[in-house]
Amino acid sequence: MKAVLQRVSEARVEVGGNVVGRIGHGLLVLVCAERGDTEATGGRLLAKILKLRIFSDDAGKMNRSVQDVGGGLLLVSQFTLAADVSGGNRPSFTGAAPPDEGRRLYELFVAQARAAHSEVATGIFAADMKVHLVNDGPVTIPLQIS
């Protein structure tokens, strides 16, 4: 699975002009299930996200996790993270999990996150979403777990 984490002061997702997910301080996480990913892959990715120390401590050092600071998680499905542009100028997304499998893995990832963390909001799988965020720092971290 791939993810891009953005430390945010606030973020929200709109679908059709309606806000479907919103957090204050925390992490916006764009998530992509790839071919061959499993439930265990998602679990390992979530564990890394929850423990990654990218929030500042009292000395200003990145030494706290989203759990340490009580931040929210906004999880947004993003199959385009699997883009392959090595063959030309039009991206290929064949590395992404097929839609039914991608949905299953994303929904499982969300369920695991809700079981492990107090504040979890989401977008809507396969919807045309508008993501609004205020990147804090800015801090943006790409992750890939096999």
How would you sum up this structure in a few lines?
By secondary structure, the protein is of the alpha/beta class.
Describe the protein's architecture and organization:
With 146 residues, this protein is an alpha/beta fold. It has a single domain, classed as D-tyrosyl-tRNA(Tyr) deacylase (D-tyrosyl-trna(Tyr) Deacylase, Chain: A). Helices cover 24% and strands 39% of the residues. It has helices spanning 39-51, 66-69, 99-116; strands at 2-15, 18-23, 26-32, 55-56, 62-64, 72-77, 120-122, 129-144. The strands form 2 sheets. Strands 1, 2, 3, 6, 7 and 8 form a 6-stranded mixed sheet that branches. Strands 4-5 form a two-stranded antiparallel sheet. A hairpin with a 5-residue loop joins strand 4 (55-56) and strand 5 (62-64). The longest helix is centred in the last third of the chain and has 18 residues, at 99-116. The chain is globular and about 45 Å long. It starts with a strand and ends with a strand.
